Amino acid sequence: MSDLAIQTDGLTKVFGNFTAVDNISINVKKGEIFGFLGANGAGKTTAMKMLTGLLSPSSGDAKVSGYDVYSESELIKKNIGYMSQKFSLYDDLTPEENIRFYGGIYGLDSKQLSHKRKELIESLELGEVKKKLVGSLPLGWKQKLAFAISIIHEPNIVFLDEPTGGVDPITRRQFWERIYQVAESGVTVFVTTHYMDEAEYCDTVSIMVDGKIEAMDSPDNLKKTFETNSIEDIFIRLARAAKRGDR
Amino acid sequence: MRIIRFLLQKEFLQIFRNKAMLPIIFVIPVVQLLVLSFAATYELKEAKFALIDRDQSIASRELVSKLQATGYFILQSEFTSEVEAKIQLEKGEVSFIVEIPRDFQQLLSNNKATSIQLVIDAVDGSVANLINSYVNSIVRDYSATKAVNINVAGLQNIEQFSVKKISTQAINWYNPNLDYITYMVPGILVILVSMIGLFLSGMNIVREREIGTIEQLNVTPITKFQFMVGKLVPFWMIGMFDLLLGLALARFGFQIPFLGSLTTILIIAGIYLVLIQVLGLFISTITDTQQQAMFIAWFIMVVFILMGGLFTPIESMPMWAQKLTLANPIAYFIKIMRMVLLKGAGWKEVYEMVLIISVVAAGLLAVSVNRYKKTSG
Questions:
Q1: Are B213 and A93 an interchain contact pair (Cβ–Cβ within 8 Å)?
Q2: Which of B269, B274, B277 is nearest to B202 (CA)?
Q3: B33 and B58, same structural domain?
Q4: Which of A54, A83, A246, B153 is the most exposed place for a label (fewest CB within 10 A)?
Q5: Residue B169 lies inside a defined structural domain of this protein
Q6: Listed residues B129, B164, B199: the one ending a domain
Q7: Which of B4, B216, B376 would you mutate first to test chain A, the one with the most A CBs within 10 A?
Q8: Which of B213, B215, B219 sits opposite A90 (nearest CB)?
């Protein structure tokens, strides 16, 4: 096994005559936080769906956690966590019931389940709302819970699709503290975001424009290359050149 | 198996937590069964009529009182002219007009043929037919007693008359009193469990697609089979529960005879509900929103119900329509229910239909599982 968690080579997805993801090649090292940036419609979500086995690629190769996306997508699913921008928790279940359900379908046994349940409720400080329905919780709490549940089965890689959309800076900061903790324990984090301050927290950042990766390096190196001191600058410069509009 | 257990647990938690769901499952079927079974009747009750009695004789009054004595007809008003009676018929205040000719009694007592005129409001053809046949049989009865009476009065040989007439004597098997409730309840029950099964199972998966949780499930190692079982079993159980509830109501509330075996009914119902659920599942694989799923399910349901033999006998449909009903699961199950409950039919009589239901269920299941994809695009 190599020290790469995700490896793609010429990965492409075509819908009809529209190339959503155009020949992308990325390498994500184990345990790093990989920021996957791009304007709306640049193809981020499509690329992520291919990596999580939700969508099969049109061409190119990709290995996630050492498994092939074409032939071993079910094995990939056992080894990754996924948190999407659309809420993936059941609003009509309580936090405890959501933990139990997702833990259960990932194959945790009852001992692990009750342990995880206690641990998560405690560490997320959900004690007083554990009997309330998730639908009634504030957005920030739901996001924290969704993240915790997405890694309940202790995967090698976790995919986060705009995990902090719509919450205040303090809640975002807290969320990123959790991401750091998870990354320190050796889990690879693959995250998309529209917040450029969040991009600064990443070990590697890639910027996608019109389905292609236009830049990929550590934030510091990117700033040197583009001779600026903010990622936002680079992003705007690259994204302005995009021909595709919002999709 | 463990994964399926977690899926089922989650479904039941959601079902019983949904405030709209509990009445749908427990109250609406009972209410509908009670209301529909009493309302959906073809019996004629208290049809009003207008009378033009030109004879004003003992015989004519006797006939009119016979009509009223049955309870089917009520004399609304009496006229001397046709025009007035027709106005009332046009207004819909009476359903038919009876006109007795001037020489009615005289002809009868001379043992000659005579006729009375019926003018029936036939906007509703089936009601008009019923009025016609009921009045006819009353008049026939009356003329028979009249002939006998005349004979007795004239001291002639009675046998002479009775021999000349051939009358049919109908004996109604399986439903001796022609009780419409007995006939309707099993059919209405079938429609109720079908609707619950089709709508709930069809909407459920689409709902997960709408709120986006299906995507989350698709990135987990759940297999298609586990997912399907997790979705089918809860609503299958609810359908069976509603069927049992309805059967209990039919047996103890409506006093419907249970001639056949309950076990047979339950086994067949189990297979039938799988078919209905799978149909719902299939709908959910071709739709993206609950509205689309609802519309398609509703469309299919209306066709199935109208062509199911509950409201219109399949035997009186045109040939091409009868052939279409061969593809209607509701028609099969209504027929099976009536055969088993009312006639006491066993496996030998119904196995062919059960076989058809099973094969269709299996085929549709294969198609739906195949269509449901964990990947999109």
A1: no
A2: B277
A3: no
A4: A246
A5: no
A6: B164
A7: B216
A8: B213
Residue ranges of the domains in chain A?
Answer: 4-88+156-240
Q: Which residues of B touch A73 (CB under 8 A)?
A: 375
| ipTM value for the complex | 0.84
Q: Give the nearest partner residue to A88 out of B3, B216, B222, using CB atoms.
A: B216
- pTM for this model (two decimals): 0.78
In a domain, B4, yes or no: no
Asked if pLDDT for residue B376 goes beyond 60, the answer is no
Superfamily of domain A4-88+156-240: P-loop containing nucleotide triphosphate hydrolases (3.40.50.300)
- Could you report the per-residue pLDDT of A167-190, keeping only the tens digit for each? 888 999 999 999 999 999 999 999
B362: Cβ–Cβ under 8 A, 6 or more apart, which residues?
A: none
Where is average pLDDT lowest: B154-158, B229-233, B283-287? B154-158
- Predicted confidence at residue B112, as pLDDT, reads 77
Is pLDDT of A118 > 80?
Answer: yes
Domain boundary among B112, B134, B164: B164
Q: Which residues of A touch B216 (CB under 8 A)?
A: 82, 84, 88
Tokens standing for B232? 């089918």
Residue B373 C-alpha, separation from nearest chain A C-alpha, in angstroms: 9
Residues B149-174 have pLDDT tens digits of: 554 444 444 444 444 455 666 676 76
Question: Residue B327 gets which letter from DSSP?
Answer: G
Contact with chain B for residue A54, Cβ under 8 A: yes
DSSP string spanning B308-360? TTSSS-GGGS-HHHHHHGGG-HHHHHHHHHHHHHHH---HHHHHHHHHHHHHH
Q: Is the pLDDT of residue B85 over 50?
A: yes
Query: Would B360 be classed as within a structural domain?
Result: yes
- What is the chain B residue with the closest CA to A153? B220
Note whether A4 and A30 are within 8 A (CB): yes
User: Is the separation of the CB atoms in B2 and A104 below 8 Å?
Assistant: yes
Minimum-distance CB partner of B10 among A73, A80, A93: A93
Pair B112, B25 in one domain: no
